[in-house]
Design brief:
- Keywords: Hydrolase, Metal-binding, Nucleotide metabolism, Zinc.
- This protein is α/β, with parallel strands linked by helices.
- It is built from 16 helices and 8 strands.
- It has one domain: TIM Barrel, CATH 3.20.20.
- Helix content is 47%, strand content 14%.
- Bound molecules: hypoxanthine and zinc ion.
- Zinc ion binds next to strand 1.
Length: 319
């Protein structure tokens, strides 16, 4: 079966594209001491037990990102890889708060990532979606939103990520309302490790237009019916789900169930440098492991195009 090329990537964290080789190179460039003997020692730490275990390494490795140029380098490397996968539109997550503790301010992060995006390969469109960290105080998210809006860097939307269990979305209602008033699109991670109730709360309290992951929505039949009726896009990341043990194996992934329930699911990569593959790898892996039909593969690709925050002209080009 020929694969439909994954034209649209809607769920990728730029810091999650930091490949081990680039971590080592940036550590040298910035004279940052890493607690790893060598590349193999770093690679040996990628066997995760859950989301928090992954997040510990993900945040620790960000120590090598110091200057705007580091963020630009990382972003350019990702876009080149995405172009090789056939991606023509990217909505890129970034975690500004994750850099504040090292004294790397919001303007440096945004300036660097947006400089990288400005060098996107010909024919590729991009948008930037900073995410608030749900395991940090809502007041901090409020300050970060001020800094985001003051930066002058064009933003597509805001999201919500980091450790989900015990961190329901509702605390961020005010900051999401402010972001919406500022004209930003709204998304949130929900139902990755957290319960279906968090998906409901993200929709009802934050007013998100798209849900990142959402696999645990399947535990609530009324919610599934609503998500299908309202055609709420769910950006599913199969290799991530397996590596973070949200799902036992790829062959046991609920993607076919979600498609069968009429949910607007699409397939994405999350943190490709950590989870064993970019969006093309994720598509190939689910096609093989789940024996998807040609029609199902087409639906996944088409759902991604329909879920993108683009105007009608661009959507028609991506179809
Ligand atoms: N889940 C939640 N937060 C994240 C992730 C993820 O998979 N990757 C980066 N931040
Ligand atoms: Zn994610």
């Amino acid at each position: 079966m020929t694969a439909t090329p994954p034209a649209v990537e809607l769920h990728v964290h730029v810091e999650g594209t930091l490949e081990p080789e680039l971590i080592m190179a940036l550590a040298e460039r910035n004279r940052v001491e890493l607690p790893y003997a060598d590349l193999d020692d770093l690679r040996a730490r990628y066997a995760f037990t859950d989301l928090s275990h992954f997040l510990d390494l993900y945040y620790a490795n960000m120590a090598v990102l110091r200057e705007a140029e580091d963020f630009a380098t990382m972003t350019r490397a990702y876009l080149e890889r995405a172009a090789r996968a056939g991606v023509r539109h990217v909505e890129l997550f970034v975690d500004p708060q994750a850099h504040l503790a090292r004294g790397v301010g919001v303007p440096v992060v945004l300036e660097g990532v947006s400089a990288g995006l400005a060098d996107a390969p010909a024919g590729m469109t991009t948008g930037l979606i900073p995410c608030f960290l749900r395991d940090r105080p809502a007041e901090e998210a409020d300050e970060v939103l001020d800094a985001l809006l003051a930066s002058g860097v064009p933003l597509l939307g805001v999201g919500l990520d980091s450790a989900e269990a015990g961190n329901p979305p509702g605390r961020f209602a005010d900051v999401f309302a402010r972001a919406r008033a500022a004209g930003l699109r709204l998304v949130a991670h929900a139902g990755e490790e957290g319960p279906a109730a968090y998906v409901r709360e993200a929709l009802d309290v934050l007013g998100v237009e798209r849900v990142d992951h959402g696999i645990r929505a399947l535990e609530d039949q009324a919610l599934v019916t609503r998500l299908a009726e309202e055609a709420v896009p769910l950006t599913v990341c199969p290799l991530s789900n397996v590596r973070l043990r949200a799902v036992r194996t790829l062959a046991a992934h609920p993607l076919p169930l979600m498609l069968g329930a009429g949910l607007a699911v699409s397939v994405h990569s999350d943190d490709p440098a950590y989870f064993g593959g970019y969006v093309d790898d994720n598509h190939r892996a689910v096609m093989e492991a789940l024996h998807l039909t040609r029609a199902q593969v087409h639906t996944l690709a088409s759902n991604a195009v329909e879920a993108a925050f683009v105007d009608d002209t661009r959507r028609a080009e991506l179809r």
